[in-house]
Amino acid sequence: MRRAWRAARAAVHALAGVATTTLVFPLVRPPARRALIRRWSRRLLSLLAVEAKVRGRIDAHHGNVLIVANHVSWLDIFVINAHHPARFVAKAELAAWPLAGRLIRNSGTIFVERARRHDTRRVNNHAARALAAGDVVAVFPEGTTTHGDEVLRFHASLLQPVVETKGHVQPVALRYTDAQGRRTRAPSYVGDESFATSFWRICGERSIVVEVVAAPPLPAQHHDRRALARSAETAIRTALGLPASATAPGSPAGPAGAPR
After folding, report:
1. Within 10 Å of residue 108's Cβ, how many Cβ atoms?
2. Cα(188)–Cα(123) distance, rounded to whole angstroms?
3. Which pairing describes strands 218-219 and 168-177: parallel, antiparallel, or unpaired?
């Protein structure tokens, strides 16, 4: 009963979000849109019994900030938006999701076609223009999700836009636990699992806690993307209590076909 009730309420909330992004967003200025995104995301987390515990602060009031985070779940997007709304760079497949895909698309997400080898250049140009205009952009440099008990090598290519705009990189570490503080895999969205299966499992959890750790921002000026990726990955590993990576970002040890 709890699972079905939560799923129904979240679906209604998603419909309201689609209506807001479709009908209201074109009529209001960006600050109002960000306030609506933050409020909507916080309400979604509440409906799903997800409690966010935040340490640190995303200092992005002046824009031109690239948030980089480890990637565990589709919930990550809404967890970050509940703290500080951003324009996400996400795989194009998300746009086809029922309700959630429409929401993500209407919120200004920049979609990347991973099957197109050179699409990263187009996406980076789009992200650089958004950063130069004062937006906050968010990426998951691992390029895929994990169960949260590891951090994969960061792909440095996704950090090129903030190098070009001489902005700041904001590392954000995400860790999901149960109410007793034990790491949980319930929110994980890994492999070929469907969104519906993941959503249904999350709705069945009594409660989920997500720890959000914002490390000190890193200035991009006078740094190359590989050094920034290495520093951001190290900051997130440190926040999660994980050992340092033995592989430098952009080295050949990453997944085949992944952007570098």
Report:
1. 19
2. 26
3. antiparallel
DSSP for 190-233 reads: -TT--HHHHHHHHHTSS-EEEEEEEPPPEE-TT--HHHHHHHHH
CB-count burial class (<10 Å; 0-12, 13-18, 19+) for 2: exposed
**Domains of the chain, start order:** 2-240 (3.40.1130)
Residue 252 has pLDDT above 50, yes or no: no
Q: Give the Cα separation of 88 and 109 in Å (integer).
A: 5
Q: Is the pLDDT of residue 251 over 70?
A: no
| HSE value, Cβ hemisphere, 13 Å, CA-based, for 192 | 0
**Among residues 135, 119, 124, which one has the least CA distance to residue 160?**
124
Q: How many residues does the chain have?
A: 260
Contact 108, 138 (CB under 8 A): no
Residue tagged 């490390």 (tokens): 215
CA 43 from centre of chain: 17
Alpha-helix residue ranges (DSSP H) falling in the chain: 2-19, 30-47, 75-83, 100-106, 119-132, 160-165, 195-203, 225-240
Over residues 152-164, mean pLDDT: 95
What is d(CA 10, CA 41) in angstroms, rounded to the nearest whole number?
A: 11
SS3 127: helix
pTM for the predicted model, two decimal places? 0.89
pLDDT at 253 over 60: no
| Res. 120: pLDDT tops 90 | no
Averaged over 212-226, what is the pLDDT? Answer: 94
CA triple 208-213-219, angle to 5 deg: 150
